[in-house]
């Protein structure tokens, strides 16, 4: 069943999405400021798989994530979100019609892993950015916590690189990672780092999340690492998690509570009114 979200009295971008996933996204056209915080030296592409609903493990979401590694900092983000945000920015700048914006939202899709993770920015910190339903822009800045790894005597090959195996506990999950000393960079997907080589593959013990490198590229031309969270609302991890929990408990209520002059109607693919989604399955990467 698909959910159609109709907003009245305000010009908003509308996304048709699965009610089962309750990905209700609003975009108000706010211009986001990007600041250059470094220069990428290595670019890594990962195929990411995640299970949002642990009661239905057969429903696996796949998404392309990117890791930009610079001097003393890195950025991990969704390529889907990057493309969609770039297209919408042009639409709003050109005052595109609502019909065009809606079509682009359907065409380019939305990210299921919309968080951006900046390790080493500011120095000694990890900063996480996210937009909940496209209207609540959040920034969580924390101390850079390095995992305590146990390196094991097992080898494998990823992208033809010889890799060694390691395990750690991090943010409520047990992780297995494969890293290569052939690329002596102590980085990896998300907050997984601190090994004597680039992490090319990682998965948690429950099979809920996995990252597998599908490409590694050395940057020969200038590629800035951009930070777009200067105007995001700062908050600690507890408050950050609470905002997400409120959204997944009642997505429509979250939107109308944040934007009281907006009316939301939900209908199925036949135009019949249906109940607002409540208590949507939520399985965050960080617990």
Summarize the model shown.
This protein has helices at 79-93, 98-108, 237-249, 251-258; strands at 2-8, 13-14, 17-18, 26-27, 35-39, 42-50, 61-69, 74-78, 116-119, 125-132, 136-143, 150-158, 161-170, 173-180, 198-204, 209-218, 224-227, 233-235, 263-267.
Topology-level CATH name: outer membrane lipoprotein receptor (LolB), chain A
Major sheet: arrangement of strands: 12-13-14-15-16-6-7-8-9-10-11-18
Order of helices and strands: EEEEEEEEHHEEEEEEEEEEHHE
| Main beta sheet | 12 strands, mixed
Gyration radius (Cα, Å) is 20 Å
Annotation, overall tally of beta strands: 19
**Helix-strand category:** alpha+beta
CATH class: Mainly Beta
Which of globular, elongated, flat, extended, rod-shaped describes the shape? globular
Distance between the termini: 29 Å
Low-confidence stretches: 1-26
Q: Oligomer, anyone?
A: single chain
Total of domains: 1
Helix content range: 10-25%
Count, helices:
4
CATH architecture grouping: Clam
Strand fraction? 35-45%
Instruction: Quote the average pLDDT.
Output: 85
């Amino acid at each position: 069943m698909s959910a159609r979200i109709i907003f009245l009295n305000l010009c908003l971008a509308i996304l048709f999405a699965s009610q089962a996933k309750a990905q209700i996204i609003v975009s108000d056209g706010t211009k986001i400021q990007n600041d250059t915080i470094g220069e990428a030296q290595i670019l890594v592409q990962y195929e990411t798989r995640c299970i949002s609903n642990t009661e239905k493990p057969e429903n696996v979401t796949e998404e392309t994530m990117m890791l930009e590694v610079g001097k003393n900092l890195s950025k991990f983000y969704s390529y889907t979100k990057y493309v969609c945000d770039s297209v919408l920015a042009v639409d709003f700048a050109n005052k595109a019609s609502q019909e065009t914006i809606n079509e682009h939202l359907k065409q380019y899709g939305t990210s299921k892993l919309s968080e951006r993770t900046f390790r080493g920015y500011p120095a000694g910190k990890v900063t996480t950015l996210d937009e909940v339903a496209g209207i609540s822009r959040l920034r969580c800045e924390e101390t850079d916590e390095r995992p305590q790894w146990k390196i094991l005597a097992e080898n494998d090959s990823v992208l033809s690189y010889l890799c060694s195996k390691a395990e750690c506990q991090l943010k409520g999950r047990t992780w297995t990672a494969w890293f290569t000393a052939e690329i002596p960079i102590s980085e990896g997907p998300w907050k997984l780092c601190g090994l004597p080589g680039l992490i090319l593959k990682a998965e948690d013990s429950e099979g809920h999340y996995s990252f597998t490198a599908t490409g590694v590229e050395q940057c020969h031309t200038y590629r800035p690492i951009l930070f777009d969270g200067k105007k995001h609302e700062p908050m600690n991890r507890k408050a950050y998690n609470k905002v997400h929990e409120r959204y997944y408990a009642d997505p429509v209520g979250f939107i109308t509570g944040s934007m009281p002059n907006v009316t939301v109607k939900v209908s199925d693919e036949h135009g019949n009114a249906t109940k607002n989604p409540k208590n949507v399955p939520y399985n965050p990467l960080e617990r």
